[in-house]
What we know:
alpha+beta, 9 helices, globular
Amino acid sequence: MGLSIQHAGYFEDHDSHDARQFIMQCYKSVRRKSHEICAPLAIEDYVIQTMPDVSPPKWHLAHTSWFFETFLLIPFLRSYRVFDAKYGYLFNSYYETIGNFHPRKCRGLLSRPTTQAIYQYRAYVDEHIEKLIASVPDEHWGTCYDRLMLGIHHEQQHQELMYTDIKHIFAINPLRPVYQTLVERSADHLSRNDWLPYDGGVVNIGHEGRDFAYDNESPRHHVYLENFYCASHPVTNGEYREFIDAGGYQNPEYWLSDGWKSVKENQWIAPLYWEKMENEWWLMTLSGMRCVDEDEPVCHVSYYEADAYARWSGKRLLTEAEWEHVANDITIHGNFSESGHLHPIAVQMGKAPYQVFGDVWEWTQSPYIPYPGYCAPKGAIGEYNGKFMCNQMVLRGGSCATSSTHMRATYRNFFFPADRWQFTGIRLGEDR
Ligand SMILES: [Fe+2]
């Protein structure tokens, strides 16, 4: 999008014309991208929900607008009238302090409001956000700036969900629709995996400073690490296939108890979207079905599968502190959504470790819990991250569906250990 949101810094002068101009540009650019993501969809694609975790694309379009309406327009734009009073119930996701909301698993049952009405809602919110940015008094600008930034990053999070939800919607359809034609790229040959040594000791992890970060990335704090090795590459499809061929999915000794339960209950035999046809493994992508490429990072595996693969190979997953220590000195570049592939690719750029950012979210062995000294913000905004700090695992580094401007070394994503529909992969570590 050409705007480096996370490096924008914080405009000390709240009334600075530049600050208002800058945020307006960021806002417009991010809102436009949501429309671009939906441009290839047919009207029917906007409406369905293929499992409770998936939301219909039109719901994402509406919910991200509801976020701006609820946290900015209603409290800060004088004489603002909500677009439709019933939308609060339909498009609130999980904010209990705001009010009741429509059950998540029933989002796909709603033919109304129509997609067209939701695009009108978006235009209405955009028009009023523009007014707000131009007119909000200085005394409220600091809060508005922070909330606009949060709303912009929130919409970027939903953009990634739109890609993964569209993929799921298309993948369960026997017609296997193509969302976009394949983006051509030259084939890379990967060097073999190396084990890169890192010295332990006391390190600092977490966010500090006034650039944008979510509350769950703070406070920055000390962590003690033992010496460790980090794999130079994420685990590839070829490597993962060896685990499959060795009977990995049939042998409980590699699996956590809950993981083995998931294997049996869901009859997992391979990553999500893999399919065996005439003795060949194929997988579904946003460009339709294709043969499994041995060199690409393996993708759409759960934490349980990542953990089982690690155990089978005699290694382990990195902790999130180890991962951040590795990532700290690495420039953020890689296969993000801007590259247009929307699929992890076999690539080796710069020096090892490779593909730390982009391609696939890397499962860590760390539970998603608060950092020492963490305090959720007061009020509804405090529900954004804090209340999910139980039973989920941390993932790092972003994926081919993440915007590059959304990524930081300190970024903590989190999903339940059985979740597979995000672009999730594996990087191994080892004690040293
Ligand atoms: Fe949301």
